[in-house]
Amino acid sequence: MQNYSFHFFRTALVISCSLLVVSSTYALSVDLESARTITAERIEFDRRSQAIRTVGQAEMETADGQRMTWSDAHMEQRGALAGGDNVQVWLGRRTFFSAERADRTDNITTAARVTYTACEDCDDGINAWEVTASRMRHDTDTRVMQFYNAVFWAYNIPIFWSPYLAYPDPTVRRRSGLLIPYMNTTTGMGTQINFPVYIALSDMHDFTFTPAHLTGENPLWQIEHRLNAERSQFRTTGSYTRNRAGNNRWHVFNNDVIELGDHARATIFLQRTSDKTYLQRYGFYDAQPFLDSGGRVEVFADSGYVRASAHTFQELRVNPNRRTISQSGDILPNIHGVFQTAPLYADTYAFFTGDMIGIYNSQNADRMQRILGSVGVASPWIIRGGQRITLSAQARYDIYYFDNADMTRFEGDPNFTGTKTRFLPSGYIEWALPLINNSSENWTHVLKPRARFTMMRVLDSPAFTDIDSAGSVLSDATLFSNNRFAGYDLWVNSNYADYGIDWSAFSANGISVSGFAGQTYDFSETAGLDPNSGFHAGRSDFVGRLSLEYKNWFAINNRARFYRDSFALRHIESMARFGKTDFIEAGYIMAVQLSDPFTEESRQNEIAGGFGTGLTERWRLRARTTYNITDERIQRQQAGLYYEHPCYMLGLEYARDGAIRRGFGVDENYVGTTTIKLVFSLRLVEGRR
Known about the structure:
Elements: E1 28-32, E2 36-46, E3 51-61, E4 67-76, E5 81-90, E6 96-105, E7 108-117, E8 129-139, E9 144-154, E10 157-168, E11 177-178, E12 182-186, E13 190-194, E14 197-202, E15 205-214, E16 220-229, E17 232-242, E18 248-259, E19 264-273, H1 278-281, E20 290-300, E21 304-315, E22 330-340, E23 349-361, E24 366-383, E25 387-407, E26 413-432, E27 435-437, E28 443-456, E29 496-507, E30 511-522, E31 538-539, E32 542-550, E33 554-562, E34 569-578, E35 583-596, E36 599-614, E37 619-628, E38 633-644, E39 648-657, E40 660-661, E41 670-671, E42 674-682
Antiparallel strand pairs: 1-2, 2-3, 3-4, 4-5, 5-6, 6-7, 7-8, 8-9, 9-10, 11-14, 12-13, 12-42, 13-15, 14-15, 15-16, 16-17, 17-18, 18-19, 19-20, 20-21, 21-22, 22-23, 23-24, 24-25, 25-26, 26-28, 27-28, 28-29, 29-30, 30-32, 32-33, 33-34, 34-35, 35-36, 36-37, 37-38, 38-39, 39-42, 40-41
C-alpha cells in the first residue's frame, strides 16, 4: 500500500491513492479516503519510479467542494514532480484558475497561458474581472503568484497591461501593497485623491499609510496602525498637513486595550488635534464636543469592581458652558469602586461605593480633590397579590478640598482654599403591582402601576461646585432612578415622590405596544435647576413614552413632556421607520426654551427623514436629511447610490454639513461644506450574492 501527494499550485489539493496497479481502457472512478474522488480514462502506476500517470481527461473533487480537471498528467511520489495539460481549478464557487500547461518541481509551479479570477460567471456567463498572462510562476514558500505579460480585464474589456504583476495566492490573508485609490470633492478643499498603501508586518500587525492630493489645499498625510497581541489590542489613527497659510494641522487618536489576566484590564486612550475645527474641516469629526485622553485600569471580581483612571480634555466648542472643564483641564486621579454582598437575609443585600477624584482647571487656576463614599442596603420583597416592595437605605459622605477655587456662586469667596464636607442619608420605598391579562386569545396585556417615595436630608446648599454637573432634564428615564442629576456635584435637595404606570401588550402575530406615563413631586424647592428641566416645587411636568412595533419592518417611538398646569407640549422626540431592506424613516424633535420658569423664549424644532431602497437586485439608494426649522437651514444631509456586486462595490456618496462654527484663532472658522465621494472596493476573495 502506497500513499501519493499531488499538488498543483498552492491550492492544497491532496490525493492519497490506495492503488498498486490501475490500468484500463475504460473510465475508472476511485474513492480516495472515502471523501475525495478522481476520475480518468486510464490511471497507470509505475512501481519502479513510484509515479502515477493519467491518460486523457481526468477530474478530481475534494471534500470541501474544490474541483480540478486536467489531461495527460503525471505525478511522482509526494508530489515532488508533477505536470499536466489543460489544467482547470475551481477553488470555490467563484474563484477559478486555468492554464494551458502547468508543471511543478518541489515548491515551484510554472504555468503557460493562464487565467485567474475570483468572480467566475458572476454576470450570466461573463466575469466581472480576470487576469490573463502568458506565463505564471507560483512559489508555495512565499505564497506569491507572479504573472508575466499580464492583462487585467473587466467584463471582457482590457483595462491595463503590465509586463509583470505579483499577486498573493488564495491562502494569503493579507499582503503589503497598493490599495485601490479613492476620491472625494469638498467645497473649499477641492478634489481629494487618496492613495492608500497597505503594509502587513505580520498576521497580527499592519498599518495603512494614505497620502492624499487636494486641489484646493496642500497634501494631507494619513496613517492607521493596528496590532493584535494574544491578550491586547492597539489601534492608532492620525493625520497631518501643513496648509497653504503655513499652519501645521494634525490629529491623533489612539486606543489600546491590554488584558491583565482574567480579572483586570488596562486601557490607554489619546485624542488630540491641532485646533478646534481641523477635525470638522478635514472630515474626521464625529460631533464630539471635546477630546478625552488618559488611561484606565479596571479590576473585576465576582461581586465587586474597581476602576482607576486619569483624564485630560481638549475643548472643541467655541463658547463652552463655563461649568465644563476647559481645554487644559485634567482629572487625576479618578478612582471608583463598588461592591455588593451576597444575600444577607432572603434577597436583602448591602452595597458599598467609593470615589476619589482630583480636578485641575488651568483656565480658572483652581484645584480640587474629592473623596466620596456611600453605603447602603436594599431589600426587595414580593407580597400578597404579586405586589413588589423594595426598601432601601443609604448614606453618602463627601469630602472636598479646594485650592484657590472660585466659590462666588455658593460661598461668595472668589479665592477659597480649604475643606468642605457634606453628609446625606437617604432612603426610599418603592411599590409595583404587575397585572397580567391573558383573556384574549391573541393578546397579552401587562399593566404595572409604580410609586416610589424618597426621603433624604434637605441641605442649605445643594452643591459647593457644579463643574461636572449640567443639571437634570425630566424624562421617562429620570423617574425611579437613584440619582436624577448628572455628575457628582449637584444633589437632589428635597424629599420627593415618583409615580407612574407602565403598560405593554403583545400579540401572537408579532405586534408589540408599550407605553409609560408619570410624574414626580418635590416636597420643597429644588435649587440649582435650569428652568427648562421640567422640575418644580410640588408637581413636576408630565412625561410619557409610547412605542409600537410590528416584527422587524415597522417601528414608531415617541417620548414627550407636557407642562404640569396647561398640559402644553414642552418637549417631544418622535421617530418612525417602515420596512427592513427597503425602508422609510422620519423623525421630529421640539423643545421649548425658557429664560425663566414663567417666560416662553423660543422653540427649537428639528425634523429628519430618510429612506433606503433597492432599485434593482444590485443597485441601492440611501438618503437622509436633518433640517433645523428654527434656523431655517439644513443641519445635515447625506445620500448614496451603491452598486453591490458579488465581486466589487461601487458607490457615489453626497454629504452636506450645515454646521457653522466661529473660532478666534487662525483657521478656526468653519462653515459647513459639501462633499462628494466616489468609493470602489474590489472583493478579491470568494464573492457572494
